[in-house]
Amino acid sequence: MLKKGVRLSVFLAVYVSFSLAFHQGPLINWLDAIVDFSSLSGLLAFLFIECLSILLWVLLLTLMFFISIKFGKLIAITLLILNATATFWMSSLGIVINQELIASLFFTDYSEASEFLNPDYLIHLFIFGLIPSVLVVLIPIKPITRIRLVLYPVGSAVMLAAITSLNPNLTDWVDDNGAYLGSRLLPWSYIGKTIGYAQDMRHGYYSRYYGGFAQLPDGTIVDDEPGLVVLVIGESSRAASYSYYGYERPINQATQKVGYIALPKSKSCSTNTMITTGCILSAKGRADWREDATEPLPSYLYRLGIKTFVRTNNTEMPRLNVGNYQTSTQLANVCDTKACMDYNVLKCDQAFCVERYFDNMLLANMDPILETAKSEKVFLLLHFRGSHGPNYSDRSPKVFAPFTPICDAHVTQCDLGALVNSYDNSTMFTDKTLAALAQILNGEDGLSSVVLYLSDHGQSLGENDNYMHGAPLKEAPDEQLEIPFLIWMSDTFKQSQDISSIKTKTIAAQDATFHSVLGALNVVGGPYLAERDIFYAD
Ligand SMILES: [Zn+2]
Q1: pLDDT digits (tens, 9 = 90+) for 245-271
Q2: Measured between alpha carbons, how far is 81 from 70 in angstroms, rounded to an integer?
Q3: Distance 40 CA to ligand 1 centre (A)
Q4: Domain chopping of the chain, boundaries
Q5: Which CATH superfamily hosts domain 226-532?
Q6: Residues 398-414: tens digit of each pLDDT
Q7: Quick one: which of 117, 147, 376, 396 could link to 429 by a disulfide (CB 3.0–4.6 Å)?
Q8: What is the whole-number distance in angstroms between the Cα of residue 273 and the centre of ligand 1?
Q9: How far apart are the C-alpha atoms of 473 and 268, rounded to whole Å?
C-alpha cells in the first residue's frame, strides 16, 4: 500500500496527528497553567484551540500541495525540522517565540549559536524531526485532481470561519491571549513573528532598529573606580500622575521614602514607544529620530569595555549589542528572592487567565551584577512594562490595589474613575519597584550606585476624550508628552560627586540620559556632552 502511495487525506491525518502529539509540549504546558482542564469550559477551550490548529495546518499544507506535491513535501519537512527544534528549546529553556527572539536569531547577541548544538537537542531533532522527514520523502502521495485538492483549503477556511463565529467567547479569549498563544502555537508562532519581523525591517523608520548603526567616536574611561549605574526606562508613566509634580494621590510615597529626588518634568521626543526608547538611548537624545541612527548607549558602553547588563519586561527596544541580555521570562528561572517572587506566582481564580510577570521580576538574581560592580564599572538597563495600556489593571498585582474600584473588565466597559484607579495602581507599583531597587543597592555597603528613571512617553486618561498615547507629535496633548525624571544616589556616589546643582538642572530627561550615564561612569570624550550631563558641576 505504501509503495503505491497514500491518499492526501491519509497523509494529512498522520502528519497533523504527529505534530499535535509531539510538537505541542510548550503549548500544553502553558495551557495547563492557565486553563482548568477539569472544567467543561477549560476542556472546550482546549478543543477549540486544537480545532483551530488542525484546520490551519490543513489550510497551510494543502495550499503548498496545490503548487506541487514536491513543494508541499518540502514545506512539510521544513516545518517538521523547525517544529522539533522550537519544541526542544521552548521546553528546555522556557523561551517563547516572540519577535525579539526572531530578531535575535538574525542578529545573535544574547545567545551564542554554538550553545544550541548540544547532544540532547541533536537526539531530539533526530527522533522528532529527521525520522518523520525521511518518511515524508519516501512515502509517495497518490495523484489527486486539482479540483479535489482545492476543496481542502477552501473547506478549511469555511470551517475556520464557522467555528470562530459560532464561538465568540472562545474566539475573544484566543484574541485576548493572542500574544501568549501565538508565541507557542507551532508553526504559527515563528511564521507569524518572522512575517512581522520582515515587515518591521522594511517599514520606514523602524528599519534602522534592525539594520546597522553608525559607530560613535570612542570616548575615554577616565578612572577605574567601580560602581553601578542603573537606567530604568518606564512605560506610559505620565508626569501628570506623579505626586512629585503635584498630583494629589500619594503615588510616589515609596520612592520618596527611600530618598529619590525628582528633576523637573520634561517632554518626550515622541508618543511612540519604539521612537522614544531610541531617543532615550541615543547620544542625540530627542533629536535622534529625525537623524541617522547611531549606536545606542548600552552597545556603546559594551564596546568600550564596560560590563553591561540589559533586562527587559517590555518590547520595542532598539537592537542592542551587549554581553548580557535577559527577558523577564528568562529571569523567572533564576528568581529566588522576595524582591522578584512577590506577586509573580502564576495563580488563576478562574478557568482562564493570562501569564504575566510584573516588573519586579527584573530584580531577580541581582548578585552577579552587584558583585561585579564592587570591582569595576557596570551599567544596567531595566526596561519596565510600567503602565502599558489599555488594561492597566494587568500592570499591577490584584492584591496591590490602593485605589478602588479598579477597571477589571475591558477598558471600554469601565467608567473613567475606575480606569484612573487602575492606572494609578500601576504607577504606584512602578514606584514600589523603583524603591525596592534602591533598597537592594542600599544594602550593599560602600557600593557607589545611582538610578536614573524616566518614562518613554506620557499617557492620556480621558482628557478631552483622549486615551492611551501615540498622537502625532504636533497634536499630542501634554499628558502624552510630559514625563517624570527621578534620580536615586547611594551615599558613596553622593560623596564622589558635587550633587548640589542636580535638582535644578533643567535638561530634558530624554536629552540627559545618555550623557548623564556617561558622566556617572566618568566616560568622557567621544559623544559625551557635559551640558547634557545632570551630574556635571559647572
Ligand atoms: Zn510606550
Answers
A1: 999 999 999 999 999 999 999 999 988
A2: 17
A3: 38
A4: 8-202, 226-532
A5: Alkaline Phosphatase, subunit A (3.40.720.10)
A6: 888 999 999 876 555 67
A7: 396
A8: 4
A9: 10
